[in-house]
């Protein structure tokens, strides 16, 4: 009954054709599920019929759906078609009182040719589209649709050795890739896809903290700046626990059931399609009290969990290699998070005033025991006059982007006077927190270490700057929350930036944007070159 109550209250954030179809699916699931107090409710039958009429009106002559910023989008339409196909599968197993199944089947038939011919533009779209093709192929008895689904799968699944999909996103793993690959595994007899989903679930559990939040700092998608709950993984964890007799996933399923974001309608629909999913879960193995650690090599992300302390160290930004900020890249400059009892540091970032190139983002990461080293080298340049052969009387030179700035100056033809800044951040993990040693070589410039503290505590020992910003010039700051204490320091004096600020870089400020975070932020400032040391330790 818990899931039914959650499903009844589930509205969902979706609008347009996707939201309409999810409303149809919800009405059908609540009308069919034996645990639902509204099973057989004529009002749900009417709702499903009325919302299906809305869906039919949104389907274009070409079979796709209108709406959203992805125009005539096969993958966006595939999300709706997957829900429609699942609903048809449920209706074909039941004695539904009207022709809803036939109407939704006509929707599938109208969409199928466009889905078969259509393309995608993100990695997870491949699996969403392939799942829609597979469902339509089975329901419409069309082998060509099944062949097209297999063609997408023939590209190989974009999962690394650590179990992370290439987008590294718990949002898209839980809501797109894992459900789609599960559907494909079942309909195309591909048990290997179940194994990949199982690997991903273990990765997500290793990224989940004691509060039930999945780490996102390494994500390449929109969730990289926000915490993500374990709840959306519930149905997948239940299936993996039962299919693989996995006690780890069973424990994860129990945690997910108590977390926000549970997709209750989807879980109930899966139970209707496969009643074995309501079987008792394996008993979870009690977790040990010793340290637990996992290094995600490709993402350059270390998660270290100890009895009272959780730490994340991250050095896997895509920005240094790509040379830009962009959608689809891992851009978050946070390199450390830690939680010690009730106190937590949500983000540690190193900002500096260096040609608008933005905050520190590591290019490499090495791990030796409890010592993690992050390194980065950034460079800007001053440009010499053009050589005589490249000069033009009209001044009409090529418009080029030289790494931080664009201008009609034919930068590539000029000799450069480079200015470099090399930064090494050593993170030493401790049972009660972490110690940092930051060394900068090269240009003399202002640096500000930004430490963002979890809400709900009191900060003392630092100078308030306004807007919940503080500076620690000397001594140690103390942050107290729910009886636990975090000590931060020592201060490094006052750097040349007055007051200290976080500088997101010209990639953001050039369009009046920012990736700055809010909340309580503590700044420690200094001027490079040199080395500064500080501690973030839980007090006793």
The backbone outline, from C-alpha atoms, is globular
User: Quick one: biggest sheet?
Assistant: 9 strands, mixed
Query: What's the alpha carbon Rg, rounded to whole Å?
Result: 27 Å
For this structure, the CATH topology of the largest domain is Beta-galactosidase, Chain A, domain 5
Share of helix among residues? 25-40%
Q: In order across it, which strands form the biggest sheet?
A: 3-4-5-6-7-14-20-17-16
Low-confidence stretches: none
Mean pLDDT equals 94
Q: What fraction of the residues are assigned to beta strands by DSSP?
A: 15-25%
CATH class identity of the largest domain: Mainly Beta
Q: How many strand segments?
A: 21
Count of the separate structural domains:
3
Tally the helices.
14
Supply the helix-strand structural class: alpha+beta
Level-2 CATH architecture of the largest domain: Distorted Sandwich
End-to-end separation: 44 Å
Commentary on this structure:
This protein has 540 residues and is α+β, with helices and mostly antiparallel strands. The protein is built from 14 helices and 21 strands. It has a nine-stranded mixed β-sheet, with no helix packed on it. The chain is globular.
Q: What is the compact description of this entry?
A:
By secondary structure, the chain is of the alpha+beta class. The protein has helices at 2-9, 16-32, 42-58, 74-91, 100-117, 123-139, 143-153, 170-187, 191-206, 234-243, 247-257, 264-273, 319-322, 506-509, and strands at residues 213-214, 228-229, 292-296, 301-305, 309-314, 336-340, 343-352, 364-368, 371-383, 399-401, 406-408, 416-430, 433-442, 446-453, 458-460, 463-466, 469-471, 477-481, 484-489, 520-527, 530-539.
């Amino acid at each position: 009954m818990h899931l039914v109550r959650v499903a009844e209250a589930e509205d969902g954030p979706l609008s347009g054709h996707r939201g309409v179809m999810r409303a149809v699916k919800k009405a059908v699931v609540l009308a069919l599920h034996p645990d639902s107090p509204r099973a057989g409710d004529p009002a749900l039958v009417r709702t499903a019929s009325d919302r299906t009429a809305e869906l039919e009106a949104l389907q274009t002559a070409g079979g796709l759906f209108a709406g959203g910023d992805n125009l005539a989008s096969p993958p966006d339409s595939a999300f709706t078609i997957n829900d429609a196909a699942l609903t048809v599968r449920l209706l074909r197993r039941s004695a539904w009182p009207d022709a809803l199944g036939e109407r939704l089947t006509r929707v599938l038939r109208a969409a199928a040719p466009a889905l078969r011919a259509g393309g995608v533009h993100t990695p997870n779209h491949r699996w969403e589209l392939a799942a829609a093709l597979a469902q339509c192929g089975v329901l419409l008895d069309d082998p060509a649709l099944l062949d097209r689904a297999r063609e997408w799968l023939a590209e190989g699944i974009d999962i690394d050795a650590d179990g992370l999909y290439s987008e590294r996103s718990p949002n898209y793993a839980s809501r797109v890739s894992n459900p789609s690959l599960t559907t494909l595994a079942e309909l195309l007899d591909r048990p290997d896809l179940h194994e990949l989903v199982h690997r991903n679930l273990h990765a997500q559990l290793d990224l989940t903290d004691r509060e039930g939040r999945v780490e996102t700092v390494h994500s390449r998608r929109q969730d990289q700046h926000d915490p993500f709950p374990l709840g959306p993984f519930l149905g997948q964890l239940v299936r993996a626990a039962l299919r693989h007799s996995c006690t780890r996933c069973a424990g994860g399923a129990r945690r997910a059931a108590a977390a926000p974001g549970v997709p209750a309608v989807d879980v109930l629909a899966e139970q209707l399609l496969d009643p074995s999913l309501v079987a008792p879960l394996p008993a979870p193995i009690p977790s040990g009290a010793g340290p637990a650690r996992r290094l995600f090599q490709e993402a350059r992300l270390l998660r270290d969990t100890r009895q009272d302390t959780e730490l994340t160290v991250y050095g896997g930004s895509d920005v240094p290699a790509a040379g830009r900020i962009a959608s689809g890249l891992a851009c978050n400059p946070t390199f450390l998070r830690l939680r010690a009892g009730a106190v937590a540091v949500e983000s540690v970032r190193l900002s500096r005033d260096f040609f608008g190139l933005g905050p520190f983002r590591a290019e490499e990461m090495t791990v030796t025991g409890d010592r993690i080293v992050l390194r980065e080298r950034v460079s800007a340049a001053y440009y010499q006059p053009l050589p005589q052969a490249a000069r033009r009387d009209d001044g009409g030179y090529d418009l080029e982007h030289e790494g931080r700035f664009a201008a009609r100056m034919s930068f590539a033809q000029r000799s450069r006077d480079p200015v470099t800044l090399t930064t090494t951040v050593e993170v030493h993990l401790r049972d009660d927190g972490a110690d940092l040693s930051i060394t900068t070589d090269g240009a003399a410039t202002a640096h500000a270490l930004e430490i963002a503290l979890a809400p709900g505590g009191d900060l003392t020992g630092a100078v308030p700057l306004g807007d919940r910003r503080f500076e620690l010039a000397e001594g140690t700051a103390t942050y107290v929350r729910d009886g636990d204490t975090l000590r931060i320091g020592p201060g490094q004096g006052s750097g040349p930036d007055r007051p200290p600020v976080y500088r997101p870089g010209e990639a953001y400020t050039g369009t009046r944007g920012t990736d700055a975070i809010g909340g309580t932020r503590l700044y420690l400032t200094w001027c490079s070159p040199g080395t500064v040391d500080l501690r973030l330790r839980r007090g006793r």
